[in-house]
Protein backbone atom coordinates (compact mmCIF):
# COMPACT_ATOMS: atom_id res chain seq x y z
CA UNK A 1 0.00 0.00 0.00
CA UNK A 2 2.82 2.37 0.88
CA UNK A 3 4.60 1.67 -2.42
CA UNK A 4 1.38 2.41 -4.30
CA UNK A 5 0.99 5.78 -2.53
CA UNK A 6 4.60 6.66 -3.32
CA UNK A 7 4.12 5.79 -6.99
CA UNK A 8 0.95 7.88 -7.07
CA UNK A 9 2.81 10.82 -5.52
CA UNK A 10 5.60 10.50 -8.08
CA UNK A 11 3.21 10.23 -11.04
CA UNK A 12 3.25 12.94 -13.71
CA UNK A 13 0.33 15.39 -14.02
CA UNK A 14 -2.38 14.53 -16.56
CA UNK A 15 -1.35 14.99 -20.16
CA UNK A 16 -3.14 17.63 -22.24
CA UNK A 17 -4.73 16.85 -25.58
CA UNK A 18 -1.79 18.44 -27.41
CA UNK A 19 0.66 16.17 -25.61
CA UNK A 20 1.95 18.81 -23.17
CA UNK A 21 1.75 18.91 -19.39
CA UNK A 22 0.87 21.74 -17.02
CA UNK A 23 1.95 22.10 -13.42
CA UNK A 24 3.59 24.27 -10.78
CA UNK A 25 7.25 25.08 -10.22
CA UNK A 26 8.76 26.96 -7.30
CA UNK A 27 11.49 29.51 -7.92
CA UNK A 28 13.79 30.82 -5.19
CA UNK A 29 14.80 34.46 -5.63
CA UNK A 30 18.43 35.14 -4.73
CA UNK A 31 18.99 38.69 -5.98
CA UNK A 32 21.81 40.66 -4.39
CA UNK A 33 21.12 43.93 -6.19
CA UNK A 34 18.00 46.13 -6.02
CA UNK A 35 15.34 45.88 -8.71
CA UNK A 36 13.48 48.72 -10.43
CA UNK A 37 9.72 49.01 -9.96
CA UNK A 38 7.09 51.68 -10.69
CA UNK A 39 6.87 54.30 -7.95
CA UNK A 40 3.59 54.79 -6.07
CA UNK A 41 1.81 51.77 -7.55
CA UNK A 42 -0.61 49.81 -5.37
CA UNK A 43 -0.03 46.05 -5.03
CA UNK A 44 -1.52 43.94 -7.80
CA UNK A 45 -5.02 42.68 -7.02
CA UNK A 46 -6.59 39.36 -8.01
CA UNK A 47 -8.66 41.28 -10.57
CA UNK A 48 -5.51 42.75 -12.11
CA UNK A 49 -3.87 39.33 -12.27
CA UNK A 50 -6.90 37.72 -13.92
CA UNK A 51 -7.34 40.56 -16.41
CA UNK A 52 -3.55 40.76 -16.94
CA UNK A 53 -3.54 44.47 -16.15
CA UNK A 54 -0.05 45.91 -16.60
CA UNK A 55 0.18 48.34 -13.67
CA UNK A 56 3.79 49.17 -14.51
CA UNK A 57 2.62 50.87 -17.71
CA UNK A 58 0.44 53.36 -15.80
CA UNK A 59 3.36 55.54 -14.63
CA UNK A 60 6.83 56.58 -15.79
CA UNK A 61 8.12 57.12 -12.25
CA UNK A 62 10.57 54.51 -11.02
CA UNK A 63 12.08 53.48 -7.70
CA UNK A 64 14.42 50.72 -6.54
CA UNK A 65 14.25 48.29 -3.65
CA UNK A 66 15.63 44.92 -2.56
CA UNK A 67 13.43 41.86 -2.90
CA UNK A 68 13.42 39.61 0.19
CA UNK A 69 16.41 37.30 0.01
CA UNK A 70 15.44 33.71 -0.82
CA UNK A 71 11.79 34.59 -1.38
CA UNK A 72 9.87 31.81 -3.14
CA UNK A 73 7.40 32.32 -5.97
CA UNK A 74 5.20 29.59 -7.43
CA UNK A 75 4.33 29.65 -11.12
CA UNK A 76 1.78 27.60 -13.05
CA UNK A 77 3.32 26.81 -16.43
CA UNK A 78 3.31 24.18 -19.17
CA UNK A 79 6.03 21.74 -20.17
CA UNK A 80 6.76 23.94 -23.20
CA UNK A 81 7.16 27.19 -21.22
CA UNK A 82 10.73 28.38 -21.68
CA UNK A 83 13.17 29.87 -19.18
CA UNK A 84 12.80 33.22 -20.94
CA UNK A 85 9.03 33.15 -20.38
CA UNK A 86 9.47 32.08 -16.74
CA UNK A 87 11.80 35.03 -16.06
CA UNK A 88 9.38 37.45 -17.71
CA UNK A 89 6.51 35.98 -15.69
CA UNK A 90 8.40 36.37 -12.41
CA UNK A 91 9.31 39.98 -13.16
CA UNK A 92 5.70 40.75 -14.07
CA UNK A 93 4.40 39.27 -10.81
CA UNK A 94 6.72 41.56 -8.83
CA UNK A 95 6.12 44.48 -11.26
CA UNK A 96 9.86 44.65 -11.95
CA UNK A 97 10.56 46.79 -15.02
CA UNK A 98 14.24 45.87 -15.41
CA UNK A 99 15.29 44.21 -18.66
CA UNK A 100 14.83 40.41 -18.37
CA UNK A 101 18.33 39.95 -19.82
CA UNK A 102 19.69 41.13 -16.46
CA UNK A 103 18.48 37.89 -14.87
CA UNK A 104 19.15 34.19 -15.30
CA UNK A 105 17.44 31.02 -14.09
CA UNK A 106 19.59 28.33 -12.52
CA UNK A 107 18.82 24.78 -11.55
CA UNK A 108 20.12 23.78 -8.14
CA UNK A 109 21.10 20.13 -7.96
CA UNK A 110 21.84 18.11 -4.83
CA UNK A 111 24.25 15.27 -5.50
CA UNK A 112 26.44 13.23 -3.15
CA UNK A 113 25.86 15.68 -0.31
CA UNK A 114 26.92 18.67 -2.42
CA UNK A 115 24.97 21.50 -4.05
CA UNK A 116 25.63 22.48 -7.67
CA UNK A 117 24.25 25.42 -9.67
CA UNK A 118 23.86 25.25 -13.43
CA UNK A 119 22.67 28.16 -15.55
CA UNK A 120 19.79 27.22 -17.82
CA UNK A 121 19.50 28.27 -21.43
CA UNK A 122 16.66 30.68 -22.21
CA UNK A 123 15.20 27.92 -24.43
CA UNK A 124 15.14 25.26 -21.67
CA UNK A 125 11.76 24.23 -20.26
CA UNK A 126 11.76 24.17 -16.42
CA UNK A 127 8.59 22.10 -15.96
CA UNK A 128 9.93 19.45 -18.33
CA UNK A 129 13.12 19.30 -16.24
CA UNK A 130 10.97 19.14 -13.11
CA UNK A 131 9.02 16.16 -14.49
CA UNK A 132 12.22 14.32 -15.40
CA UNK A 133 13.72 14.86 -11.93
CA UNK A 134 10.54 14.09 -9.99
CA UNK A 135 8.74 16.24 -7.41
CA UNK A 136 11.47 16.22 -4.73
CA UNK A 137 12.87 19.77 -4.37
CA UNK A 138 15.88 18.34 -2.56
CA UNK A 139 16.90 16.75 -5.87
CA UNK A 140 16.19 19.69 -8.17
CA UNK A 141 15.05 23.26 -7.55
CA UNK A 142 15.12 26.53 -9.48
CA UNK A 143 16.83 29.79 -8.51
CA UNK A 144 16.58 33.26 -10.08
CA UNK A 145 19.84 35.21 -9.87
CA UNK A 146 21.57 38.09 -11.60
CA UNK A 147 22.88 37.23 -15.04
CA UNK A 148 26.64 37.37 -14.53
CA UNK A 149 28.22 35.96 -17.66
CA UNK A 150 31.51 37.80 -17.45
CA UNK A 151 30.45 39.80 -20.52
CA UNK A 152 28.52 43.05 -20.23
CA UNK A 153 25.04 42.81 -21.75
CA UNK A 154 24.80 46.44 -22.87
CA UNK A 155 21.36 45.90 -24.40
CA UNK A 156 20.04 45.12 -20.92
CA UNK A 157 20.63 48.70 -19.70
CA UNK A 158 18.43 51.72 -20.21
CA UNK A 159 19.66 54.95 -21.84
CA UNK A 160 19.87 56.83 -18.47
CA UNK A 161 21.94 53.97 -17.03
CA UNK A 162 24.32 54.02 -20.02
CA UNK A 163 24.65 57.81 -19.77
CA UNK A 164 25.48 57.44 -16.09
CA UNK A 165 28.18 54.89 -16.95
CA UNK A 166 29.69 57.35 -19.45
CA UNK A 167 29.74 60.11 -16.83
CA UNK A 168 31.54 57.82 -14.36
CA UNK A 169 34.05 56.71 -17.00
CA UNK A 170 34.79 60.31 -18.02
CA UNK A 171 35.40 61.28 -14.39
CA UNK A 172 37.69 58.29 -13.84
CA UNK A 173 39.53 59.16 -17.07
CA UNK A 174 40.10 62.77 -15.96
CA UNK A 175 41.28 61.63 -12.52
CA UNK A 176 43.73 59.22 -14.13
CA UNK A 177 45.03 61.90 -16.51
CA UNK A 178 45.60 64.30 -13.61
CA UNK A 179 47.47 61.61 -11.65
CA UNK A 180 49.78 60.93 -14.62
CA UNK A 181 50.33 64.66 -15.23
CA UNK A 182 51.26 65.25 -11.57
CA UNK A 183 53.65 62.31 -11.65
CA UNK A 184 55.51 63.56 -14.74
CA UNK A 185 55.43 67.21 -13.61
CA UNK A 186 57.17 66.15 -10.41
CA UNK A 187 59.67 64.05 -12.37
CA UNK A 188 60.37 66.96 -14.78
CA UNK A 189 60.88 69.32 -11.83
CA UNK A 190 63.51 67.01 -10.32
CA UNK A 191 65.29 66.69 -13.67
CA UNK A 192 65.38 70.47 -14.12
CA UNK A 193 66.73 70.94 -10.58
CA UNK A 194 69.42 68.35 -11.20
CA UNK A 195 70.31 70.04 -14.50
CA UNK A 196 70.62 73.48 -12.87
CA UNK A 197 72.80 72.09 -10.10
CA UNK A 198 75.01 70.40 -12.67
CA UNK A 199 75.37 73.60 -14.71
CA UNK A 200 76.16 75.66 -11.60
CA UNK A 201 79.13 73.51 -10.63
CA UNK A 202 82.60 74.70 -11.76
CA UNK A 203 83.96 72.67 -14.65
Automatic annotation (TrEMBL):
Q: Name one GO biological process term.
A: apoptotic process
Q: Which Pfam families match?
A: Nore1-SARAH, RA
Q: Which UniProt keywords apply?
A: Apoptosis, Coiled coil, Cytoplasm, Cytoskeleton, Metal-binding, Microtubule, Phosphoprotein, Zinc, Zinc-finger
What name has this protein been given in UniProt? Ras association domain-containing protein 5
Limits of the Ras-associating domain: 63-149
Annotated GO MF terms: zinc ion binding
Localized where?
Cytoplasm, Cytoskeleton
* Recorded superkingdom: Eukaryota
This protein's assembly is summarised as: Interacts directly with activated HRAS; a RASSF5-STK4/MST1 complex probably associates with activated HRAS. Interacts with KRAS. Probably interacts with Ras-like GTPases RRAS, MRAS, RAP1B, RAP2A and RALA. Interacts with RRAS2. Can self-associate. Interacts with RSSF1 isoform A. The RSSF1 isoform A-RSSF5 heterodimer probably mediates the association of RSSF1 with HRAS. Isoform 2 interacts with activated RAP1A and ITGAL/LFA-1. Binds STK4/MST1, inhibiting STK4/MST1 autoactivation.
Entry keyword annotation includes Protease: no
Q: Which SUPFAM superfamilies match?
A: Ubiquitin-like (SSF54236)
Q: What region holds the SARAH domain?
A: 151-198
Q: Which InterPro entries match?
A: RA_dom, RASSF1-6, SARAH_dom, Ubiquitin-like_domsf
Amino acid sequence: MQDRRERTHMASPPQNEDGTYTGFIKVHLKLRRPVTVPAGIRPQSIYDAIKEVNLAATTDKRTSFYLPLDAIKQLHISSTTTVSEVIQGLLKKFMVVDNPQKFALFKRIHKDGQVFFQKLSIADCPLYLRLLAGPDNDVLSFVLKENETGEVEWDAFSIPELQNFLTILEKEEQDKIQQVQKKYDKFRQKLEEALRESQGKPG
